[in-house]
Amino acid sequence: MSNRISRVTITDIARRLNITAATVSRALNDHPGIRDTTKKAVKDMAISLNYQPNKIASSLRLGRSNIIGVIIPSAEINFFGSVVHGIEKIASKNNYNVLIYQSNELYEFEKKGVLTLLQSQVDGVLASISKETRNLEHFREIKKRGVPLILFDRTNDMLDVSSVVVDDYAGAFQATRHLIENGCRRIAHIAGQQHVNIFNLRLKGYIDALNSHDIPVDDDLIVYGKVSIESGRECMKRLLDAPLRPDGVFAVEDFTALGAIQAIKSANRKIPEEIAIIGFCNEPFGEHITPSLSTINQQTVTMGEEAAKLFFEGLSGIGLLNPKSKKLVLEPQLICRQSSIRRS
């Protein structure tokens, strides 16, 4: 004897109520042509029979999976988790689910992720490009298949798709200016990989802030790392070993700043009295370490919400009225904490 429980279908509901399966289907989908009394009877019967809709059949019928694919470089970084939170918030309001793929900052993983999402018949892809990626053909394949592609944070203008970013240049300018206003004059920058647009913009913001305050740009104070705690630590050691060490450091992001703080402490230098430091991103750990880390807030949840809204605008046809790609730029917010504020 089989223990298998047969799946309840709309035909079973129709048979119980002595109506057609088509009527049941329309009632479950709140079709305006079905009377409220019939809708209630159908929904009550569906509940009593523990009816579960067949989402695969429904998506085949409607031509939609009601799934958004999201590619993030790393799930270990709160920044991307917060962006995904914003995406899921808007997706849920629109009865959509989110399928997440982590590239681990690797080009080959990212390509595999794109293929996996396309094979999963997602209705759209929201992505942040990995640090390793230089070839964009896998993203162009998404466009070729007519699947909406929206980028967030790490973008590339060559793809000509809609995107949501924070103003990285302005954030870097604010961070550097903040160090200057706190008395720093030999300000170093621990930079990221320059083929990544956001890291290049942060370098430019740093340089322009120095220039605007008549502080010479010293190439010896610009070191290039790989955006990690270990890289921040190694880059800071190089700066500390220089004949003239910096009195301020703008790190390209918070994990790099954390590594720099570790190196400064190991060298028995005081923060911020001898070396003030500021990061970028506003990772949660920043307010809990000693000294607490000054940083730039990137409005991560808002970034995710706006990226999802761009997708649904296109889905609803609003985007068709203005088919050109949109670039939403969020304002960065300076957060001042112990690591950069010097007492007068």
What does this structure look like?
The chain has three domains: 10-53, 434 Repressor (Amino-terminal Domain) (Orthogonal Bundle), CATH 1.10.260.40; 66-166 and 300-331, Rossmann fold, CATH 3.40.50; 168-298, Response regulator (Rossmann fold, 3-Layer(aba) Sandwich). With 344 residues, the protein is α/β, with parallel strands linked by helices. The longest helix is centred in the last third of the chain and has 17 residues, at 300-316. The strands form three sheets. It has a six-stranded parallel sheet, with helices on both faces. Strands 7-6-8-9 form a four-stranded parallel sheet, with helices on both faces. Mean pLDDT is 91; it is low at 1-5. It has helices spanning 10-17, 21-28, 36-48, 55-62, 78-93, 107-119, 137-144, 168-181, 197-212, 229-240, 254-266, 300-316; strands spanning 67-72, 97-102, 124-127, 149-152, 162-166, 187-191, 222-224, 248-251, 276-278, 295-297, 327-330, 333-335. 42% of the residues lie in helices and 15% in strands. The chain has twelve helices and twelve strands. α11 (254-266) links the parallel β8 (248-251) and β9.
